[in-house]
Automatic annotation (TrEMBL):
<dbReference type="InterPro" id="IPR000515">
    <property type="entry name" value="MetI-like"/>
</dbReference>
<feature type="transmembrane region" description="Helical">
    <location>
        <begin position="143"/>
        <end position="163"/>
    </location>
</feature>
<protein>
    <submittedName>
        <fullName>ABC transporter permease</fullName>
    </submittedName>
</protein>
<feature type="transmembrane region" description="Helical">
    <location>
        <begin position="213"/>
        <end position="232"/>
    </location>
</feature>
<keyword id="KW-0472">Membrane</keyword>
<dbReference type="InterPro" id="IPR035906">
    <property type="entry name" value="MetI-like_sf"/>
</dbReference>
<feature type="transmembrane region" description="Helical">
    <location>
        <begin position="107"/>
        <end position="131"/>
    </location>
</feature>
<feature type="transmembrane region" description="Helical">
    <location>
        <begin position="184"/>
        <end position="207"/>
    </location>
</feature>
<dbReference type="Pfam" id="PF00528">
    <property type="entry name" value="BPD_transp_1"/>
</dbReference>
<keyword id="KW-0812">Transmembrane</keyword>
<feature type="transmembrane region" description="Helical">
    <location>
        <begin position="20"/>
        <end position="41"/>
    </location>
</feature>
<feature type="transmembrane region" description="Helical">
    <location>
        <begin position="244"/>
        <end position="263"/>
    </location>
</feature>
<dbReference type="GO" id="GO:0055085">
    <property type="term" value="P:transmembrane transport"/>
</dbReference>
<keyword id="KW-1003">Cell membrane</keyword>
<dbReference type="GO" id="GO:0005886">
    <property type="term" value="C:plasma membrane"/>
</dbReference>
<keyword id="KW-0997">Cell inner membrane</keyword>
<feature type="domain" description="ABC transmembrane type-1">
    <location>
        <begin position="72"/>
        <end position="260"/>
    </location>
</feature>
Length: 270
């Protein structure tokens, strides 16, 4: 009996054990999020699992409530503005940090990425103190500025990974043939970066749309976003409508994750 015959049963046992552990971890991670989906189809006035009746009443209540619809529209507006501004700042910054060397580059990179490292509650307090001096607390512009500061490092990380995979020879050849830096960036670099930019845009939108801690500090009565509305609802009035909102957010997150994964193979094949 050779060694491979002896090792095969052991390898299969390890493989089965690994599959079971992965399944347990996935169930532990996904169950709380997926549990709200069947609950959201329960009857009005109840949050139970499994629901006793199947109905669309909670979704009907959600989309006929001016408060909930207003919070959804404000979150969408803030998330779209945040995504656009973060891309305008993050894409050129990521390209410059990867392609060019300059004194203090590591320090600049550390400062730009610091919102990822610092606890979000600390960032929220600092933004509140800073924006209150500017009179921007309780305004959409103040919340968008805060979300841009928080989200841009995530966009930069995604785009920087894409820039590192580009072939510098293409940019060098374009420059030799007479193209200036702007032409090289828009005609050569940007088309190759579209998958990374798309993934960064999805992350920026989703992080801003779901963000609650910074919004809790900076929003007022007329600028309450959907996550702040949900948190307030849990604290003061546990409305069953929140299960319908949670189910929609879960669907949105899964959709964006699938789109992000779909973009990754396109990036690798280029």
């Amino acid at each position: 009996m050779n060694d491979s015959t002896l090792l095969d049963p052991q390898a299969r046992a390890y493989g089965n054990m690994r599959t079971v552990i992965v399944a347990i971890v996935l169930v532990f991670l996904l169950a709380p999020s997926l549990l709200v989906i069947p609950i959201s189809f329960g009857g009005p006035g109840e949050i139970t699992f499994p629901p006793r009746d199947f109905s669309w009443d909670l979704y009907r209540q959600l989309f006929t409530s001016a408060d909930w619809v207003g919070a959804i529209m404000r979150s969408l507006r803030v998330a779209v503005l945040t995504m656009v501004i973060a891309l305008l700042i993050g894409v050129p910054a990521a390209y410059g940090l990867v392609r060019y060397d300059f004194p203090g580059k590591k320090l600049v990179l550390l400062l730009v990425m610091s919102p990822i490292l610092i606890p979000v509650i600390v960032i929220s307090l600092g933004l509140y103190l800073y924006l209150s001096r500017l009179g921007a607390v309780g305004t959409v512009s103040g919340l968008v500025a805060a979300h841009v500061a928080y989200v841009t490092p995530f966009v930069m990380m995604t785009v920087m990974a894409g820039v590192k995979k580009l072939d510098p020879a293409l940019e060098f050849a374009s420059s030799i043939m007479g193209a200036n830096r702007r032409t090289v960036f828009f005609k050569v670099v940007l088309p190759q970066l579209l998958p990374s930019i798309g993934a960064g845009a999805l992350f920026a939108f989703l992080i801003s749309f779901d963000e609650v801690v910074i919004a809790w500090f900076l929003t007022g009565a007329s600028t309450t976003t959907l996550p702040v509305k949900m948190y307030s609802s849990i604290q003061w009035d546990i409305s069953p409508v929140i299960s319908a909102v949670s189910a929609l957010l879960t669907f949105l997150s899964i959709l964006f994750c699938c789109l992000s994964v779909w973009l990754q193979p396109s990036q690798r094949t280029e």
